[in-house]
């Protein structure tokens, strides 16, 4: 067998008969998301173990095209590519303080010399170690180093195919600057580069304010692909540019109303037998949930704490963790609640608690609140902060709701779903101080380098594009990340003219710099059309006896229904123009 592979200007052209693409007719039972189903059915991936996948040729080409776009935009933004080790010394993580903090997602092991190491889930420690050894003067800064590399995070429940896998490919970049102004400029360059990357990948996306999580730092943005199947909830304003993920969304405290001027009443203990929940208590006492205060007991590495929120509000644990400045935060078990409050769960209140107490801002001017009495089957009416109990701090501790106004302009909020495909952070000196990555400034003083961190999930971009762009027949690839730009369906291959026109078109389009996939299999037309729809290659060109009767080929865009006949001699140029138009639409 003679293998014919054409490489022109980075594009790859292949024949179906000489390609490895095991498609599936049926929807795999283990696949929940559309992207997972279609990537399996289109022969892009195959599962090896939980959260670990083989990437087959059709899928790998799509990943490489995404990588190419990422590289071009990172290079354009002034970043410089490196490649860092996947195996990282445990000593570095201990030095940064993250060896224990990162948790069970960090896959740890020992080598033959009993030295602790891990598979890299991220590379802050390694890149900071490299820079502290090589960068010593302000004259060597700023610099931005990036890599495209395999990561491993030992997810407790990998799911959704490559969307939440344990092993995945990430582009991670790290900027190093001498001052905040330079760090801000580096952050802005990455923000602009990310917008260009996702736009060129054909994604509908939104940048949202986000929590920094285990990476750390002072500020971050997530880039979310808008899709109903997304795991993350996004809050955005319909009047201004404000957007945030749900855990980060700020809540504006409304101005004091008549309730704030109520006269403080005397405490009153009431019996509430076996009545614990917000609904039960408010119905029993004939009050609105906004009058009830939930006293929630949490366990941290520094001991138990109490968080107070209104009965009609939901506590935001991300905000609580940040306010308390703790790494470990979990709801207390019944035994701890009993030890702290002296009562079973459901009857906690702030009065008399000898633990740290923080309260949501909505409670600051509330009068005559209702809360648990720290006694079984009892609640207390007319509780007032200052007179009956004190809190360490008031802060924004709750989840935002659709009834809340935009924290920037007061406009109406919209809630939606998104898939995170990129995240950028202002790290500040978190890692440079921990690892002593310093430079000599213009005055000769040793100063910590100011850092930024910028990540993109390569597989996630492909999966998110499929989530966002598909129909009942299969994938609808954006042209920029489609494994091939043009698919030629040669029907009635027993006819010499069909074979010749299809072959000539294959070579002519390849010579024009396009990636072409020639379906030269001896299969029924219906079978070929179904595979073409499943694979989602943007432009389909059909060569058949029917089209050649008019000395033409048939051009169709996936998934549009319109068919266009084009004379054989004019087809290569016309197809090139169609493909170029698809690229132009992504600018």
Describe the structure.
The chain is an alpha+beta fold and 587 residues long. The protein folds into 3 domains: 6-23 and 484-584, Rossmann fold, CATH 3.40.50; 36-201 and 432-466, Bira Bifunctional Protein, Domain 2 (BirA Bifunctional Protein, domain 2), CATH 3.30.930; 258-395, YbaK/aminoacyl-tRNA synthetase-associated domain (YbaK protein, Alpha-Beta Complex), CATH 3.90.960.10. It is built from 15 helices and 33 strands. Strands 5, 9, 10, 11, 12, 13, 14, 23 and 26 form a 9-stranded mixed sheet that branches. A 7-stranded mixed sheet has the order 1-2-30-29-31-32-33, sandwiched between helices. Strands 18-16-17-19-22 form a 5-stranded mixed sheet. Strand 24 (438-440) and strand 25 form a beta hairpin. The longest helix is centred in the first third of the chain and has 21 residues, at 180-200. It starts with 5 loop residues before the first strand and ends with a helix.
Radius of gyration based on Cα positions: 30 Å
Please mark out the parts with pLDDT under 50 across 5 or more consecutive residues, or reply none.
Answer: none
Largest sheet, strands/sense/barrel: 9 strands, mixed
Question: What would CATH call the architecture of the largest domain?
Answer: 2-Layer Sandwich
DSSP E strands, number: 33
SS-derived structural category = alpha+beta
Distance between the termini: 42 Å
CATH fold node name of the largest domain? BirA Bifunctional Protein, domain 2
CATH superfamily of the largest domain: Bira Bifunctional Protein, Domain 2
Shape: globular
Number of domains: 3
Instruction: Look at the structure and give the mean pLDDT.
Output: 93
DSSP strand content: 25-35%
Given this structure, which CATH class of the largest domain is correct?
Alpha Beta
Give the count of helical stretches.
15
Q: Helical residue percent?
A: 25-40%
């Amino acid at each position: 067998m003679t293998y014919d592979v054409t490489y022109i200007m980075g594009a790859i052209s292949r024949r179906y008969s000489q390609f490895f693409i095991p498609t599936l007719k049926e929807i795999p039972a283990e696949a929940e998301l559309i992207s997972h189903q279609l990537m399996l059915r289109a022969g892009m991936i195959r599962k090896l173990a939980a959260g670990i996948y083989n990437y087959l040729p059709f899928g790998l080409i799509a990943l490489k095209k995404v990588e190419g776009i990422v590289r071009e935009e990172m290079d354009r933004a002034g970043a410089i590519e490196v490649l860092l080790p996947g195996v990282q010394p445990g000593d570095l993580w201990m030095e940064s303080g993250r060896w224990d903090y990162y948790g069970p997602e960090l896959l740890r092991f020992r080598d033959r010399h009993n030295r602790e190491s891990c598979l890299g889930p991220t590379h802050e420690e390694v890149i900071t170690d490299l820079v502290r050894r090589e960068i010593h003067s302000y004259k060597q800064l700023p610099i931005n180093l990036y890599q495209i590399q395999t990561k491993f995070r030992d997810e407790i429940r990998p799911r959704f195919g490559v969307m939440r896998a344990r092993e995945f490919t990430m582009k991670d970049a790290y900027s190093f600057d001498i001052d905040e102004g330079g760090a801000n400029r580096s952050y802005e360059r990455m923000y602009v580069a990310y917008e260009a990357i996702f736009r060129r990948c054909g994604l509908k996306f939104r940048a949202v304010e986000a929590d920094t999580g285990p990476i750390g730092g002072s500020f971050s943005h997530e880039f979310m692909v808008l899709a109903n199947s997304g795991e993350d909830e996004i809050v955005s304003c319909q009047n201004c540019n404000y957007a945030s993920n749900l855990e980060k969304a700020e809540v504006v405290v409304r101005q004091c109303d008549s309730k704030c001027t109520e006269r403080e009443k005397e405490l009153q203990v009431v019996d509430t037998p076996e009545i614990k929940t917000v609904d039960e208590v408010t119905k029993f006492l004939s009050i609105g949930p906004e009058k009830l205060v939930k006293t929630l007991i949490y366990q941290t590495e520094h001991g138990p704490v109490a968080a107070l929120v209104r009965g009609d509000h939901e506590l935001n644990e991300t905000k609580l963790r940040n306010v308390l400045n703790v790494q470990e935060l979990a709801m207390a078990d019944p035994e701890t609640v009993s030890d702290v409050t002296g009562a079973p769960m459901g009857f906690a209140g702030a009065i008399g608690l000898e633990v740290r107490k923080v309260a949501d801002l909505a409670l600051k001017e509330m009068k005559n609140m209702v809360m648990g009495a720290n006694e079984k089957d009892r609640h207390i009416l007319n509780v007032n902060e200052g007179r009956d109990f004190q809190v360490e701090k008031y802060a924004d501790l709750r989840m935002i709701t659709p009834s809340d106004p935009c924290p920037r302009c007061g406009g109406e909020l919209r809630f939606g779903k998104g898939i995170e495909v990129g995240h950028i952070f202002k790290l500040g000196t978190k890692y440079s101080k921990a690892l002593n990555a310093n430079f000599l400034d213009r005055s000769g003083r040793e100063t910590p380098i100011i850092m930024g961190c910028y990540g993109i999930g390569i597989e996630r971009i492909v999966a998110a594009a499929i989530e966002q762009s598909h129909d009942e027949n299969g994938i609808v690839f954006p042209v920029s990340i489609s494994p091939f730009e043009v698919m030629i369906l040669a029907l009635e291959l027993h006819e010499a003219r069909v074979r010749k026109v299809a072959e000539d078109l294959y070579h002519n389009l390849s010579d024009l710099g396009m990636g072409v996939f020639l379906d030269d299999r001896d299969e029924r037309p219906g079978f070929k059309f179904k595979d073409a729809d499943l694979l989602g290659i943007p432009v389909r060109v059909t060569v058949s006896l029917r089209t050649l009767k008019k000395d033409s080929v048939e051009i169709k865009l996936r998934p549009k229904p319109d068919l266009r006949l084009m004379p054989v001699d004019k087809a290569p140029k016309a197809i090139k123009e169609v493909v170029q138009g698809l690229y132009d639409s992504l600018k």
